[in-house]
Automatic annotation (TrEMBL):
This is Gamma-glutamyl phosphate reductase. The gene is proA. Pathway: Amino-acid biosynthesis; L-proline biosynthesis; L-glutamate 5-semialdehyde from L-glutamate: step 2/2. The keyword Ion transport does not apply. GO terms for cellular component: cytoplasm. It comes from Enterococcus gilvus ATCC BAA-350. It is an enzyme of class 1 (oxidoreductase).
Length: 415
């Protein structure tokens, strides 16, 4: 007898075949209807989400994580708008990116095709459900979604709604499936679903991602934890730097593109750090190295583990450096290859930072909070890939495709 994951896998593989044959206009019509259905069913979705919120409070989940979980009418509208943007994006499937003629007079083209069946294991945020489903659908991939127990009722309601939209268009509802079991055993089965999954994408905290990386036998695209930094250079405009740090740390600390460490050049530390303390405390707890504590009145001494921790909370580590080289060395040693920023008026320092910092997204004079598929113009995202093979940075439609070679001949044989 098939277990749950084998059943979902078989259904997804069957649905992927139908999905790969759909024309762009058909897919766009479904997505537009999906967005409309999402808005029309807002009350039911909020009710399901409230069940998750009630459980979160009972289990003592911290407020920043509850914020990630929370749906509001505005967030539902944003989710619907993300789906509409995906519908408006060019469809990569079937596009022939280049063609050439060989010495054997064969015409060869490289064509974009779906990956097939994508599995996604993720935590907490219900918007991941609609982002992932819409991107997979538009790029011709069936998807199996396994969310965390924190957002179980929200995710269940969202997938049921999208499946209803598929059925309304006479399509196989298994194009978008939800794993109705949040146990570790079922997650482990998903990591070994080699007969059906073409790729598995974990999206969540470092514990989840490391568990999938070490345990999965199916191909994995690593989406990153965000141990991100802002470096305030000796040539920085301090007013600009303060606004960037405030936004990158405190606007929404529970997301992966928020910063965890502030790195400051020693020449501006005496002027800048008191401004940071005045602006961020008591909301944000500061943890500084010994040098920075000379300029801070309400900070604790940072430990070695603070430099490598993704807090996902109102906590900011602070490091003072003597040069941009020391800043880059510190960042490259401790970062998670996600998003890094420099604030500087020096062109040469900005370019040095861009060139030498190893991360998927590197900014000059802007907040790391922009590392987001929606903000990058991708409509939505599957996640932020921090690896270097196949996809890096926000993963949109193109990153969910592969390619095949199409060859035209007129009777050639190889001698």
């Amino acid at each position: 007898m098939d277990n749950l994951m084998n059943t979902l896998g078989k259904q997804a593989k069957r649905a992927a075949q139908q999905l790969s044959q759909l024309e762009s206009l058909q897919k766009n019509d479904v997505l537009i209807q999906m967005a409309q259905d999402l808005e029309e069913q807002s009350a039911a979705l909020l009710s399901a989400n409230q069940q998750d919120l009630d459980r979160a409070k009972d289990h003592g989940i911290p407020d920043p994580m509850i914020d990630r979980l929370r749906l509001t009418p505005e967030r539902i509208n944003e989710m619907a708008e993300g789906i509409r943007q995906v519908a408006q994006l060019p469809d990569p499937i079937g596009v022939v990116e280049k063609m050439w003629r060989t010495e054997d007079q064969l015409t060869i083209g490289q064509q974009r095709v779906p990956l097939g069946v994508i599995g996604i294991i993720f935590e907490s945020r219900p918007n991941v459900t609609t982002d992932a489903a819409s991107l997979c659908f538009k790029s011709g991939n069936a998807v199996i979604l396994r969310g965390g127990k924190e957002a179980f009722f929200s995710n269940q309601a969202l997938v049921a709604l999208m499946q209803r939209t598929l059925r309304d268009h006479q399509l196989d509802s298994a194009m978008i499936q939800f794993v109705n079991d949040t146990s570790h055993e079922v997650a482990a089965e998903m990591m070994h679903l080699n007969d059906y999954l073409d790729v598995l994408i974990p999206r969540g905290g470092s514990g989840l991602i490391q568990r999938v990386k070490t345990s999965a036998t199916v191909p994995v695209i690593e989406t990153g934890t965000g141990n991100n930094h802002v470096y305030v250079d000796s040539a920085a405009q301090l007013e600009m730097a303060l606004e960037i740090v405030k936004n990158a740390k405190a606007q929404r600390p529970s997301v992966c593109n928020a910063i965890e460490t502030l790195v400051v050049h020693e020449k501006v530390a005496a002027d800048f750090l008191p401004l940071v303390e005045k602006e961020l405390t008591p909301l944000v707890a500061l943890r500084g190295d010994a040098h920075s504590l000379k300029y801070l009145k309400q900070a604790d001494l940072a430990t070695e583990s603070d430099w490598s921790t993704e807090f996902l909370d109102y906590i900011l580590a602070i490091k003072i450096v003597a040069s941009i080289d020391e800043a880059i060395e510190h960042i490259n040693h401790y970062n998670s290859k996600h998003s890094e920023a420099i604030v500087t008026d020096s062109y040469s320092n900005g370019q040095k930072f861009l060139k030498e910092v190893d991360a998927a997204a590197v900014y000059i004079n802007a907040s790391t909070r922009f590392t987001d598929g929606f903000k990058f113009g991708f409509g939505a995202e599957i996640g932020i890939s921090t690896q270097k093979l196949h996809a890096r940075g926000p993963m949109g439609l193109e990153q969910l495709t592969s390619s095949k070679y199409i060859i035209y001949g007129d009777g050639q044989i190889r001698e």
